[in-house]
User: Fold this.
Amino acid sequence: MKTFEYQSQLWLPRTPGDVFPFFADAFNLEEITPPWLQFRVISPIPIRMGVRTEIDYRLKIRGIPIRWRSRITVWDPPYCFVDEQVLGPYRLWVHEHRFTESAGGTLCKDHVQYAAFGGALVNKLIVARDIRDIFVYRSV
Assistant:
């Protein structure tokens, strides 16, 4: 299985203790995900975050309805958490969120390791661009 990586970072003028709760709240994903994905959290509330927490989502990728389930595999507030796809559109999806103090604020780093169905060609033609567009949307 061919894997790919995507990395991005965003600086915010707040402490990791202020920033972490926003990103750790699954429902805030609805706010920071591009509207064209029609992303919705469908897990019942409240969601108690921690290692082994599973969260269900519904979204559309290029108009195709998708269900996604992720599991939190690392939980280290306010510095890091990792979510991994259990069910969804990728063969592999591991997303590390890291928050470090930097220049009087917080550097938010995302590192995604993923594998696309269809391999390198599908990744090059579609998936890599879609992932980039999602993270660019979040930084605006």
In short: The chain has three helices and seven strands. The beta strands are 4-12, 40-41, 54-61, 64-76, 80-87, 90-102, 105-116.
